[in-house]
Design brief:
By secondary structure, this protein is an alpha/beta fold. It has two domains: 73 residues, 2,3-Dihydroxybiphenyl 1,2-Dioxygenase, domain 1; 68 residues, 2,3-Dihydroxybiphenyl 1,2-Dioxygenase, domain 1 (Roll), CATH 3.10.180. It has four helices and eight strands. The strands form two sheets. A four-stranded mixed beta sheet has the order 1-4-3-2. It has a four-stranded mixed beta sheet with strand order 5-8-7-6, covered by helices on one side.
């Protein structure tokens, strides 16, 4: 089948245009890349939608040892306008590991009208997306005992030593999310 010359020219122009767009897009990405000074905080806050927010707050404060700060309400219109929720109001519970302006904040919430679907939590590779939270502790033995006392058993056969000499334990929160605690065993 012989192609019409104008079709060939159009095809070449299209390929050239896509190539130039790709090159220009790459240059544009380089221009807008962030720099270390672009951020007002070196921590990242993250949110977890829970099936029962009170139960999750209890787990993260009692078993993990986080502290709850004042939370905040998100009106239905605000959640809708920023693209987070489909016109549902919700309350955000804010938990932290330490004090000060630059601490990571864990934001827990639930939605009574539309609670969401549980993800496959068999393994971290079972579902795409954020899969686990790592929390550095001063004494893994104490942290492990606190988790066990709460009823959250480590997923492995005891604490596992990692190459840098620290130990880790992986647990599940009330919704099955992976929580990894990492730290040294305190000297006795």
């Amino acid at each position: 089948m012989k192609l019409h010359p104008s079709f060939k020219a159009l095809t070449c122009a299209l390929v050239l245009g896509v190539g130039l767009f790709a090159l220009t897009g790459a240059k544009e990405k380089q221009k807008v890349a962030s720099k270390p000074g672009d951020f007002t905080s070196t921590t990242i806050d993250f949110g977890i939608v829970c099936s029962d927010v009170e139960r999750s707050v209890d787990f993260y404060t009692q078993a993990v040892g986080m502290t709850e700060l004042d939370g905040f309400d998100v009106p239905a219109e605000m959640g809708q306008s920023v693209g987070l929720a489909d016109n549902q109001p919700f309350r955000v519970h804010v938990l932290v590991l330490g004090k000060g302006d630059n601490v990571t904040k864990l934001k827990l919430m639930d939605f009574k009208k539309a609670p969401g679907k549980k993800a496959n939590q068999d393994f971290i590779h079972s579902t795409l997306g954020m899969r686990y939270t790592t929390i550095a502790v001063k004494d893994i033995t104490i942290a492990n005992m606190r988790m066990i006392a709460y009823g959250s058993m480590p997923l492995s056969k005891g604490l596992q030593e990692i190459p840098d000499g620290r130990f880790l334990g992986v647990y599940r929160d009330p919704d099955g999310n992976f929580v990894e605690l990492v730290g040294p065993k305190a000297k006795k």
